[in-house]
Design goal:
CATH architecture: Alpha-Beta Barrel
Largest sheet: 8 strands, parallel
Oligomer: single chain
Distance between the termini: 20 Å
Order of helices and strands: EHEHEHEHEHEHEHEHH
Radius of gyration: 17 Å
Strand order of the largest sheet: 1-2-3-4-5-6-7-8
CATH topology: TIM Barrel
Number of domains: 1
Bound molecules: zinc ion
CATH class: Alpha Beta
Length: 262
């Protein structure tokens, strides 16, 4: 089986000592490509160098809504100059209203810049949304459907919203949260996505899937090879065999990431 990890963070400091091992295990598991998302200006360079060194790593550049305090005065220019000359996706970007103290207006401004840049350059956009669905829909209503399709990563919204998001030309990506035994909301969402819109991701090194581990074991760092149990869980939820689900998600990833593939 072949896989594409639609969203991970291979620049993360916690895993720098193990990149060759992570990539070897990914290859063995059938992971052909990994979309590695930068999260702030200071990790653009590492994301670029990883993608230059390893052909299976596809770069994605953006500012995560958690890290808006890191923005330099000329971040728009920095991001534009980073993204324009090379095949890459845009993100991680988005809206996260979990923290009530977060500056929502600033998040919206930064997110809209990413959407416009993705539209201008014709690149897929990798979107993070937590508790900000109304704000997302308002923005999409104003901008209209994305010219180049994007994705909502590690989907945590309601199943009802999925047809609306699909109309705005978004794909829906599922992470290890589908492996959690009590993930009722995610289970409904996995069933609600159109077959031609479903994607898989690890968000490595975070969101380690719930595998058969003794309770209370220390949280482990996630990696792209864990797409295999994620695909297995998603297939069970949709009542498909895992080969069919994996192939479907792979084909969908090829479509959405075509502007980034070598
Ligand atoms: Zn992420």
């Amino acid at each position: 089986m072949k896989y594409i990890d639609s969203h991970c963070h291979l620049h993360d400091e916690r895993i720098q000592g193990d990149i060759p091992g992570i990539l070897a295990r990914a290859e063995e598991a059938g992971v052909r490509y990994m979309v590695s998302c930068a999260t702030m200006e200071s990790n653009f360079k590492r994301t670029r160098s990883l993608s230059r060194e390893y052909g299976s790593i596809l770069p994605c550049y953006g500012i995560h809504p958690w890290f808006l305090d890191s923005l330099s005065d000329r971040w728009e220019q920095v991001l534009g100059e980073q993204a324009a000359p090379e095949p890459c996706a845009i993100g991680e970007t988005g809206l996260d209203f979990m923290d009530k103290a977060a500056d929502r207006d600033k998040q919206i401004r930064v997110f809209r810049f990413h959407l416009e840049l993705a539209n201008t350059l014709g690149r897929p956009v990798n979107i993070h949304i937590r508790k900000a669905w109304d704000a997302l829909i308002q923005i999409l209503k104003k901008s209209g459907p994305l010219k180049t399709p994007g994705l909502i990563h590690s989907y945590s919204g309601s199943a009802d919203l999925i047809p609306v998001l699909e109309k705005f030309n978004l794909y829906i990506s599922f992470s290890g949260s589908v492996t959690r035994p009590n993930a009722k909301k995610v289970v409904k969402a996995v069933r609600a996505v159109s077959k031609d819109r479903i994607l898989l991701e690890t968000d490595a090194p975070d969101i380690y899937p719930s595998l058969d581990e003794p309770a209370g074991s220390t949280p482990r760092l996630n990696e792209p090879a864990n797409l295999v149990p994620i695909a297995g869980a998603a297939a069970r939820i949709r009542g498909m065999n895992v080969e069919e689900l994996a192939e479907t998600a792979y084909d969908n990833s090829l479509k959405i990431f075509s502007p980034v593939l070598p």
